[in-house]
Amino acid sequence: MAPNPLANWEKIGNSFYRKLAVYDAIFEDDVELENYLVAGAPYGGAIALYRDETKPLRLRDGQGSRSTIDVYSCSGQRINRINWEQATIRGLGWSDKEELLIVSEDGTVRRYLGLDGEFTSFSLGNGAEEYGVRACQFWSSGLVALLSNNQLIVVSKYDEPRPRLLAPCPEGEVSSWALIPPAHTLSRSVEVLLAVDKTVFLIDSTEAEDKILQNGPFKHISVSPDGLSVALFTAEGKLWVVSNDFQSKTSEYDSKSRVPPSTVTWCGKEAVILAWEDEIHLVGLNGVASKYYYDGRVHVIPEFDGVRLVTNETCEFLHKVAGVTEEIFRLGSSSPASVLLDSVDQLEKKSPRADENIQRIRSSLPSAVDTCIKAAGHEYDGFWQKRLLKAASFGKSVLDLYNSDEFVEMTEKLRVLKSLRDYRIGLPLTYEQYLRLTPDGLIERLINRHEYLLAIRISEYLQIPADRVYVHWASQKVKVSTVDDEAVCKLIVQRLDGKPGISFEAIAQAAYNEGRSHLATQLLNHEPRGGKQVPLLLNMEEDELALDKAIDSGDDDLVNYVLLHLKSKLPLASFFRLINTRPMASALVETAARGEDTELLKDLFYQDDRPIDGANVLLAEALRESDRARQTEKLQLASRLLSDSKEPTVVLNQKLVTEASQLLKTQEALDKDLADNSEYLGLSLNETVYRLVRAGYGKRAQKIQSEFKMPEKTFWWLRLRALVAKRDWGELEEIAKVKKSPIGWESFYNEILGAGNTKLASGFVPKCTHLPPAERIEMWVKCGMIVKAGEEAQKAKDLNTLELLRTKASGPAATEIERMINQLKPKK
Amino acid sequence: MAPFSGSDADHFKDKARRDLLTLLESVRGKKNLVISQELAGPVGLFVKFSELQDYGVHRVFYLENANIDSSQRNVVFLVRGEKARHVRIVAEQIKRLQNNGNVEHEFSIFFSPRRTLVGNAVLEEAGITGDVNIAEFPLLFMPLEQDILSLELDDSFSDLYLHKDPGCIFHAAKALMSIQQRHGYFPRIVGKGDNARRLTDLLLRMRKELDAEESSGLADPSARGLLPSPNVENLIIIDRDVDFGTALLTQLTYEGLIDEYVGIKNNQADVDTSIVGPASAPQPQESSKTPQQHGPPKRKVQLDASDQLFNQLRDANFAIVGDILNKVARRLENEYEARHTAKTTGELREFVNRLPTYQVEHQSLRTHTNLAEEIMRLTRSETFRKTLEVQQNNAAGADSTYQHETIEELIARDVPLKTVLRLLCLESCMSGGLRPRDLENFKRQIVQAYGHQHLLTFWALEKMELLQPRSPATTMLLPTSGAQAGTKTNYGYLRKNLRLVIEEVSEKDPNDISYVYSGFAPLSVRLVQCVLQKSYMVSLIKGGTPAAALNNASTMSPGWLGFEDVVKSARGATFSIVQKGDDKAVRARQTLSGNSGTKTVYVFFLGGITFTEIAALRFIAAQEAPKRKIVICTTSIISGDRMMEAAIEKGSFGPANASK
């Protein structure tokens, strides 16, 4: 017999609401719901029950004062019991990933990963400890805590929690508050509505804005799931729905109750739920309401598309009837989709009306099929799902062209949903919720409930990766199995063989956390990703192995990290021993130490017996040293380090280091004698000589030359350049009187010419006897002495050049050249 | 998988831009951006300052200047996560701002290219992990040109060869993986050098890890294990230390010479305004980012393909740059003069429409003429002539001891230390080390001439194996047999067997890559030719006419085949690895796509590439044009000077010279 699809429909204003009974007989009778605080995870997730401490406790044996938090599935199966011995609980909530969050009065937040009772914790700080947390509210990925001094603390992600304060709020009695999740605010970060005294403040990270209302105090505030409207419950028992800017009131409802409801929350985007102990008001647009009464305490768990109502006996879902469903099932509906559904009936009766129906809606048949498919998704009952799909199937068989993808997907989704809604699993997802949760999220939830088989089946069915399921399974196996390590490892490896993407590192981590480090090492060997193994190996104190694996991975960061870790942990000698045989490691240690820790370097080089390297470190230090005495000391130390060896390069280095300090000493003396302030100190030897010559201290320069055994050539070059720079032509002329120059005279010519003294330069041309005449001619020309050039050419009997010269010459020079040409011209 | 649309360069550029702007957007409101200097240049390649402003950046600070102030509540740091030192500076600056007190700051750190464990540890140590938002900015390859992808790691050379820090190999592997993820696996990886081998091992390993991470996605075959790419031919990896010699030579192409004398960084050169004139009006956005500098006023000249004239000049030998410039000048003149002959209004309109282009071209012509003149002046100097002479003798394999006198003279004449060291290193590389006595002699002279701190410089050069004493073993290795493989590149042998020296190459109308060094072919690029242009190489070695051989180059043997013996006498590992995919899938795809036309060859220079080598590779690319496309990848652009800078000790004794 087909159930009536209209059962439990309730008309509120223009729309219909439907209350579905999802599960029966949820809680044992001895769970007295009225004494519990209840928080439910979104998307049909788990429900956490915590005994309300403000309620009197009936003394029973055994239970005493030990408080616990019980986690149930929606169908009333207890998943876990968490013992609670910490401070009073001030906030109980869930994240989107079904992580239970418990905030205690002293500002400690515990985040339970999965449903197994593993947790991490962090503190809210910011004065939470002194003032105490008064209440907490949660959104999909964060929470806001209200302290007793009206300060608000936000945590916007749990992976790296960074509690921060919102703008300070005004003094006064906070009668109620609500948060607006980041997705719905202009600032893209969370904001809070705080009802203080008669008005409401909107608080974000920078300021508290007074919305200037007069009708407070508001006993409840609730923000709609789309963030567009706000529901306010006044002390007079009135419910107001206002726009989110508090500028316009869209509806008002008088509950006629002096007692404020225990819960005010939204049911979808358009209706508000008011819940007292055993009474629910569903208030739609324009203040039209419908009332439901219960035998016992009823708890309301909001979802984005409706609310779950939990009592001892039942778990119900109250939501707005979807448009497509309404279009088909509404009494007297004659929409194409509803006609299509009807034709299925006719078809079964083998009535020709089936065909007539189809002909009647022919033009809108595709959309009718679509509607039927969508409606099937919104239907909870198997009978009607089938019926609607059948109608769709019938409809599309008539169509020539129809893309069946949606139809196929819908059947798949419905199958998945059906398997989830089974009371043994207890995940009463609606179609919309499933879309938002995504298949990945769904698998996550199944894993949390240890429903591995179903998770794998669904993964395969939906063709999504199942590696997480396997890994979780194996980790769990490691935790609970009691057989020896080899057997467990073998079992796991066998089962997971050939499955792609398995992170053995995660399994090994689980094993290590259980204290089975041997098993962990064994499992790690199966991990293909080298880098992944390292942190765990470090934790396990497998230092050497960790270092090797890090080096294998080629990731310098990983190696550095391991080295950093080892350096602080091991005695220096063993640290050196460890890196000694690993070139990459020692190279990285050296590089890092060069910048920061030269002492370590010295130790390292000493240990390795590398005197040159050691001396170089000292040399580098000496360079950075501004204090002369210490600089000298460092240089001496370096020199001493090198003095032990007989190797020629070392000997040379030692000599040069000594020379360096010697030079510095000489320069100091020069500074004292010749300069007002330090002028010579720190120059190179060549520069010292150059400057001395330029400053006119030729004698001293010569002395230094011999003292430091500077090559003669070098000295000549330096003197030449310095004198030219000084424009000391006299001295240069003086030098020119010498017979021989070790650097030739051409260089003199060039440098002096470069300085612009052609006259002096020309004096050097005749001295360049070894040059070919052509070049000498060029040299004369550059000095502007054409005649001289001509003479040179004449000597070389180069007629062509003379001809060329003639074009350049002018005045008397020209005639002179002409004369030479004539002389040279072969006499006919 | 739609990897075939758009070039890699555009793809990476676009991605980097989007990534950065998204990150900036995630910080609400106005913010100050603190950026480390080595990232500022690269970031400038793909995003303009005005664009940053649109995304709320109020002012930009350099991390190194440590002058970030409290003018904005939001402060964003952009640094390399691999550099612990930089992270430490960031931590210091954050703490300083926090202690300053009057503004409650909101800090964000973007780590590029990744967040590191060491960086985490540093922040943890400083106690600020909880106070900052941390994000990653995965900046790997930066396209300098359509055919050049660079990691722009300035320190990669010193890291690799001096510090032996393999960080940039890992970085390179990650970057190459990003190419593989876009196109599929390189069907073959050919390489030369030990670091190249290491890079390849990492690539293979990462592929395995990626395969392991890929999950059982049955529905989407593209996500499930990549296949060898159908449109990539191979990846050729050349380790810089295979051929230090080439990079030490003075580059003789136009772009190379600009790099030698002015320095090109991130496609920009800072040129004295006395040479090229002050910046023209339409380029203010660049200058607003740079802080006021001291010294002579500089102007940033953008050097990339957007400048058509430069594009024409960049890879030409400098000897013919003058000619080209003259020709262009004449053409412009003629076209401009055409306005007088314009008769109809249509012609006039056309002329007016083209006016802006003329102006741009004219501007560029002026800039490059001035630049070329300046370079001409430098190349005419005596020291340049002498330097080049020593270099060419070394490259040609003449007895190097005859050059020593010249080098000594250069030292005494106080030419830049870099120049002298380059000559010595070149000799050491080309002839397997200096005689110990000579080396000692030079060491003494250089230390005396340039300061005793350069003992450290020598030590560094030796560690990099750039400047070494000739050991008895290496003397034996010198000419003839190529059998002794491994530790050193035997230029003597390779010069002959790969025809590195070609005297008669024409600079004007080149027929061989040796034109880039006026007669010396870069060994590194010859190696690439051994893989890509086998028949050309064969005929070149045998002495046939090279031009004819080009045409029948199609019958190819893969990898080093045919040249294994020759290649062995270059330093380091030699390898050629085929990356196989699932056979069935490969065949299926082959039938689907057919044998598509152009195949891409990626050439990766690990440790840096010079502009001349780029020019040589482009020369090859032009020859292979319809069949192949060559994309040049590198860790950074390098030059002989930069190699020396890696080694040269910058400190000096005494307070007088502290600032010098």
TrEMBL record, chain A:
Source organism, top-level taxon: Eukaryota
SUPFAM superfamilies (alphabetical): DPP6 N-terminal domain-like
Residues covered by the Vps16 C-terminal domain: 502-810
Keyword field: Protein transport, Transport
GO biological process terms held by the UniProt record: endosomal transport; intracellular protein transport; vacuole fusion, non-autophagic
Entry GO terms, CC: endosome; HOPS complex
Sequence ranges assigned to domain Vps16 N-terminal in this UniProt record: 6-408
Pfam families linked: Vps16_C, Vps16_N
One GO MF term: actin binding
Job description of the protein: Essential for vacuolar protein sorting. Required for vacuole biogenesis, stability and to maintain vacuole morphology.
PANTHER family linked to this entry: VACUOLAR PROTEIN SORTING VPS16, VACUOLAR PROTEIN SORTING-ASSOCIATED PROTEIN 16 HOMOLOG
Protein family per UniProt: Belongs to the VPS16 family.
Protein name: Probable vacuolar protein sorting-associated protein 16 homolog
Organism of provenance: Penicillium olsonii
UniProtKB/TrEMBL annotation, chain B:
Designated name of the protein: Vacuolar sorting protein
Domain of life: Eukaryota
Family: Belongs to the STXBP/unc-18/SEC1 family.
Gene3D superfamilies, A to Z: 1.25.40.850, 3.40.50.1910, 3.40.50.2060, Syntaxin Binding Protein 1, Chain A, domain 2
A Gene Ontology BP annotation from the UniProt entry: vesicle-mediated transport
Annotated Polar residues bias: 282-293
Transmembrane region(s): 601-621
Region: Disordered, residue numbers: 274-300
UniProt keywords, alphabetically: Membrane, Transmembrane, Transmembrane helix
